[in-house]
Amino acid sequence: MGADGVSSPNIKRVPSTKPPFTLGQVKKAIPPHCFERSLLRSFSYVVYDLLISSLLGYIATTSFHLLPSHFAYVAWPIYWILQGCVLTGLWVIAHECGHHAFSDHQWIDDTVGLLLHSALFVPYFSWKYSHRRHHSNIGCLDRDEVFVPKLKSQIPWHYMYLNNPPGRALGLAVKLLLGWPLYLSFNASGRPYDRFACHYDPYSPIYSDRERLHIYISDLGIFATTFVLGRIAITQGLAFVISIYGVPLLIVNGFLVLITYLQHTHPSLPHYDSAEWDWLRGALVTVDRDYGILNKVFHNITDTHVAHHLVATIPHYHAMEATEAIKPVLGEFYRFDSTPFYKALWREARECLYVEPDEKGVFWFMNKF
By C-alpha distance, which of 338, 180, 312, 186 is closest to 258? Predict the structure, then answer.
């Protein structure tokens, strides 16, 4: 145990010992049809989300200017939130394409993923490759790609002055508003590399030589989206683009940070160094959460993430059934937290400040400076 105390002592820790089951046993518990990918069914979710998004955009562009100003001040934030949620669902489907969980055809998955992610200013292949390494190294302090907790000795000196409600609120605001673009552009919160790492740079140390062409393709997707938005801004005005697309995109980015942060940050979760880590124990270093109705809007990426890290190719529409099937196998190694996400976000920001090893060399979150 670290000298400064463990965060949230009333929360039961996930076991850090070697699991008494294998990945093969986990997969065997999942009904065979859960591994089946239906191209028609997968596309139906894309079409549904696009229709809802288009409907929201149509209502906003054709009706809001007719409203009295005091009603418009209410209508626009409602549109931004609803559109941001729907677009987050589309982002999740593109993420699924990157895991080859959309269809049986890799080229279809990559084409759909590239189009959807590019439209949301995400470099599809660039993030697909770094995210794949996250799945390969989750829970390893030395090799995981994102949301890698720091040791106390690595915490900047000024953090202790931000460890209070105003400082915490400021930190969360910056994380939710800027965390995603800062990660893509500057590898903020990512694993350290020996030189500058950026998802838009084909020669970034994140990528191997054989991946570099795909990084160029990802960049072209971003340039194409930028060009289209620029043309719209010329004809409709910059304010139009910001209100219809820009603000919802900020909400998408905020949800991405919120979801991934809470999936991998919890007082009960252990972390391991390279000497102690193995893939199965690392894959269990995640937690399922309850976002209420947003679970469905986000295609259950929120409440089936444990199963996703164990078998990433399961489509989202089978993920709930797969999760229920593996719970008896995982036993106390499975973690679900029903705390409302906004309360959990504040708690984790307060309790999970850094990690320190216990006497067995397993690292746990601490909260005292």
Answer: 180
The pLDDT profile of the chain, 369 residues, written as one tens digit per residue, is 333 445 555 688 999 999 999 999 999 999 999 999 999 999 999 999 999 999 999 999 999 999 999 999 999 999 999 999 999 999 999 999 999 999 999 999 999 999 999 999 999 999 999 999 999 999 999 999 998 999 999 998 888 888 999 999 999 999 999 999 999 999 998 999 999 999 999 999 999 999 999 999 999 999 999 999 999 999 999 999 999 999 999 999 999 999 999 999 999 999 999 999 999 999 999 999 999 999 999 999 999 999 999 999 999 999 999 999 999 999 999 999 999 999 999 999 999 999 999 988 899 999 987
The residues near 288 (Cβ < 8 Å, ≥ 6 apart) are 302, 303, 304, 305, 306, 323, 334, 335, 336, 337
- Chain-centroid distance of CA 198 in Å reads 18
- Which is nearest to 232 in space by CA: 85, 61, 65, 90? 61
Tell me the residue type at 185.
Answer: S
Q: Can you give the length of the chain in residues? A: 369
Q: Are 102 and 40 within 8 A, CB to CB?
A: no
Strand 354-357 to 363-366 pairing = antiparallel
Angle at CA 160, nearest 5°, toward 357 and 360?
A: 5
DSSP annotation of 6: B
Answer yes or no: are the C-beta atoms of 356 and 2 closer than 8 Å: yes
Whether 7 contacts 267, CB under 8 Å? yes
Question: Which one, of 122, 127, 119, 94, lies nearest residue 108 by Cα?
Answer: 94
State the DSSP H helix or E strand holding residue 364, giving kind and residue range, or none if neither.
strand 363-366
